[in-house]
Task: inverse folding
């Protein structure tokens, strides 16, 4: 019986938290995830990602107070950017957010507060759905994944 239990025991999950200029954190706590996201700033750490054991990930880039969120699923291949139906702030399409990875051109509804991004990261960490106000737009065609 012990042999069978070892065979059917759930595989341990590993989450990896990566952030610009910071050491990799394996299996981060909710507090570590929130801290990394909420402290994004220009001239310091301006992007981060959280990857699960399947290789799916969520990433954020920006600085106080604004950021952009994307997620990637590998099976089936899907890359999406977050948006919201009631955009805040009132930026126009084509406005750019500056990060350590360069400029990112956003649509008017793709701007999020860092506190919102932290909620999305924590949901991903716990394998929960993202908050209902966060919608996802496919970037597959732009990235050549279709």
Result:
């Amino acid at each position: 019986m012990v042999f069978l239990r070892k065979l059917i025991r759930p595989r341990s999950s590993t989450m990896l938290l990566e952030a610009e200029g910071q050491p990799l954190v394996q299996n981060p706590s909710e507090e570590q995830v929130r801290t990394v996201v909420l402290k994004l700033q220009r001239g310091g750490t301006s992007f981060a990602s959280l990857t699960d054991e399947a290789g799916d990930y969520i990433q954020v880039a920006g600085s106080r107070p604004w950021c952009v969120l994307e997620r990637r699923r590998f099976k089936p291949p899907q890359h999406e950017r977050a948006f919201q139906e009631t955009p805040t702030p009132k930026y126009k399409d084509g406005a750019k957010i500056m990060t350590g990875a360069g400029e990112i051109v956003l649509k008017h509804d793709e701007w999020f507060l860092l506190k919102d991004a932290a909620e999305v990261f924590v949901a991903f960490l716990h394998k929960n759905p993202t908050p209902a106000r966060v919608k996802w737009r496919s970037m597959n065609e732009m990235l050549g994944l279709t």
